[in-house]
């Protein structure tokens, strides 16, 4: 196993210099995610216009994988509908957990193929079962933000 | 870089040199995993052949239930079990084997004291003092008692140097202080607490003292009578014994005054539906069939440590800790979490620009096992304002070569993350 499959340049870059790393002044939705096992914390901020994500950002403290995953996530879900964001999460989740959900992995609509490709560098994490939850924390928190609308929601990770 | 420290040779009681490389050969795990650099002994120690084979041999030759059978085999098993209690008593220098209660581990020992001694002797408003260094196992049982009894939990702070602040500690003690429950050696930082002073100050206020010896027993000679502590707990699996067994030491007068905490077989004298009478300590606190083989394995582990020499083990751990401190801090970008100048057997460190979990994953690729996370001490991590640390910890089988491989793994992580010092 080559560590370079996990820590690709794009991961190290986003881990060091995360994009959209700020709070939103007036989010319509937000949620705190916490992985008590390792102490990683992330807060996802969203501004929705109808069902479209028109602004998204995050804050928090975590390892390179969780920071890079949150950073890449904010890039790919911007200007997407909630349904599209959910499809991307399903695809990503299935790919990194390799579980039953992996049936959705090949089923990303063509319109989201480019976004799916952008998440590809993170999928090296599937060879490191103890780190999968680092990669999915931001996504679970995004889901909680959409569902909870700002109320504290327990975030489940792998 | 080669780092030479003078006068490092550690001598065993029989005059032989303490040779961790030879000792390592008594631990089969290293034979089966030849590339392994195991630096997580503070989480759980590996097991010597004497313990593994000795427990199997007990099952093969002397095993039956204890304290029950009239037949010879049960008598032999009981004799082995009670001899194990004597070994623990001798190891801690307790006045009598009846002061030793077998428990599942330090966690259960603390819960036993909280649930038996607590309700019998604490009243609303009474105070239990812990420190910021504590493992969750020495925090949560007292919080549960706070909820149940309305007692207060008082937290003794650390100084800026990472040591328990004894002046602040003394200032927290008062007439309402009934118990001080404190670690002997902090699992996150390796700080050796000045427990002699803690006991003296607590006793001067009429408070009792419980010491959590999980990390101290594997590394320091512990003499409960010299310490004059009232309760002392430790876990077998951290001192080269099996999991699921540990011991609570308590002064006999305290055990005699404490009510049972779990009911069942073995802890009773007579049972009728109208009334039940209980055994004396320690049996009163050991309901149900105990972990018989575990107790025997624990005794074998303590005998193993005595054979190496406990002062020699301490000196070995101290020398290796000094070596690791010097070796790691010589790497640019590496910092140690402060331990008040008295670090033994464990050290937490941080590497600039690399999260501890990324470090641990990279180390694992080098077959270097360290712990990364909050180490079951979230309040301490909050106090230090750190989400996580990486921790290396040592045992009797740890060598300078292990530290060298850790240093090399740190360098590799720095190169991968592009944070290597030029």
Automatic annotation (TrEMBL), chain A:
One of its GO terms (biological process) is iron-sulfur cluster assembly. Pfam families: NifU_N (PF01592). This is Nitrogen fixation NifU-like protein. SUPFAM superfamilies: SufE/NifU. GO terms for molecular function: iron ion binding; iron-sulfur cluster binding. PANTHER family: IRON-SULFUR CLUSTER ASSEMBLY ENZYME NIFU HOMOLOG. It comes from Nitrospirillum amazonense. Residues 7-88 form the NIF system FeS cluster assembly NifU N-terminal domain. It comes from the Bacteria.
From TrEMBL, chain B:
Gene3D superfamilies: Aspartate Aminotransferase, domain 1, Type I PLP-dependent aspartate aminotransferase-like (Major domain). One of its GO terms (molecular function) is cysteine desulfurase activity. Keywords: Pyridoxal phosphate, Transferase. One of its GO terms (biological process) is cysteine metabolic process. Its cofactor is pyridoxal 5'-phosphate. It catalyses: (sulfur carrier)-H + L-cysteine = (sulfur carrier)-SH + L-alanine. Pfam families: Aminotran_5. It comes from the Bacteria. Its EC number is 2.8.1.7. It is an enzyme of class 2 (transferase). InterPro entries: Aminotrans_V_dom, Aminotrans_V_PyrdxlP_BS, Cys_dSase_SufS, PyrdxlP-dep_Trfase, PyrdxlP-dep_Trfase_major, PyrdxlP-dep_Trfase_small. Residues 38-406 form the Aminotransferase class V domain. The keyword Nucleotide-binding does not apply. PANTHER family: CYSTEINE DESULFURASE, CYSTEINE DESULFURASE 1, CHLOROPLASTIC. Catalyzes the removal of elemental sulfur and selenium atoms from L-cysteine, L-cystine, L-selenocysteine, and L-selenocystine to produce L-alanine. Belongs to the class-V pyridoxal-phosphate-dependent aminotransferase family. Csd subfamily. This is Cysteine desulfurase. It comes from Nitrospirillum amazonense.
């Amino acid at each position: 196993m080559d560590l370079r499959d996990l820590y690709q340049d794009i991961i190290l870059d986003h881990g060091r210099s995360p994009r959209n790393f700020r709070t939103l002044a007036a989010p319509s939705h937000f949620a705190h995610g916490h992985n008590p096992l390792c102490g990683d914390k992330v807060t996802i901020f969203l501004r929705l216009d109808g069902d479209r994500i028109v602004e998204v950002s995050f804050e928090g403290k975590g390892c390179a994988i969780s920071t890079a995953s949150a950073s890449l996530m904010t890039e790919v879900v911007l200007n997407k509908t909630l349904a599209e964001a959910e499809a991307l999460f399903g695809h990503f989740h299935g790919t990194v957990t390799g579980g039953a959900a992996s049936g959705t992995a090949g089923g990303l609509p063509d319109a989201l193929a480019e976004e799916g490709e952008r998440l590809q560098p993170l999928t090296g994490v599937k060879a490191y079962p103890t780190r999968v939850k680092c990669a999915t924390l931001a996504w679970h928190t995004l889901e909680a933000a959409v569902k909870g609308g700002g109320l504290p929601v327990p975030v489940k990770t792998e | 870089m080669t780092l030479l420290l003078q006068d490092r040779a550690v001598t065993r009681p029989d005059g032989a040199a303490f040779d961790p490389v030879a000792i390592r050969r008594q631990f089969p795990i290293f034979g089966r995993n030849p590339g392994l650099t195991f630096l997580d002994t503070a989480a759980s120690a590996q097991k010597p052949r004497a313990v593994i084979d000795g427990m199997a041999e007990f099952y093969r030759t002397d095993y039956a239930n204890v304290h029950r059978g009239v037949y010879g085999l049960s008598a032999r098993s009981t004799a082995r079990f009670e001899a194990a209690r004597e070994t623990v008593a001798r190891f801690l220098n307790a006045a009598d084997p009846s002061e030793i209660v077998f428990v599942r581990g330090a966690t259960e020992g603390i819960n036993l004291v909280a649930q038996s001694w607590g309700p019998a002797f604490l009243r609303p408003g009474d105070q239990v003092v812990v420190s910021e260094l504590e493992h969750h196992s020495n925090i949560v049982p007292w919080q549960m008692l706070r909820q149940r009894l309305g007692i207060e939990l008082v937290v003794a702070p650390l100084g800026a140097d990472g040591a328990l602040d004894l002046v602040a500690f003394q200032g927290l003690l008062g007439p309402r202080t009934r118990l001080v429950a404190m670690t002997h050696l902090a699992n996150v930082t390796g700080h050796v607490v000045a427990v002699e002073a803690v006991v003296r100050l607590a006793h001067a206020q009429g408070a009792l003292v419980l010491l959590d010896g999980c990390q101290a027993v594997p590394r320091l000679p512990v003499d409960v009578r010299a310490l004059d502590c009232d309760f002392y707990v430790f876990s077998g699996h951290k001192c080269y014994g099996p999991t699921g067994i540990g011991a609570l030491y308590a002064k006999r007068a305290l055990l005699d005054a404490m009510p049972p905490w779990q009911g069942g077989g073995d802890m009773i004298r007579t049972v009728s539906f109208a009334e039940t009478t209980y055994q004396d300590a320690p049996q009163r606190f050991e309901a149900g069939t105990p972990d018989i083989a575990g107790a025997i394995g624990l005794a074998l582990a303590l005998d193993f440590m005595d054979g190496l020499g406990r002062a020699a083990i301490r000196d070995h751990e101290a020398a290796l800790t000094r070596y690791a401190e010097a070796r790691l801090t010589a790497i640019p970008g590496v910092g140690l979490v402060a331990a008040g100048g008295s670090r033994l057997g464990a050290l937490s460190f941080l590497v600039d620009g690399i999260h501890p979990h990324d470090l641990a994953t990279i180390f694992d690729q080098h077959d270097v096992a360290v712990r990364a996370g909050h180490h079951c001490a979230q309040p301490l991590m909050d106090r230090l304002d750190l989400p996580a640390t990486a921790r290396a910890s040592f045992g009797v089988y740890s060598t300078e070569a292990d530290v060298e491989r850790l240093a090399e793994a740190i360098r590799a992580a720095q190169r991968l993350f592009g944070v290597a010092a030029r």
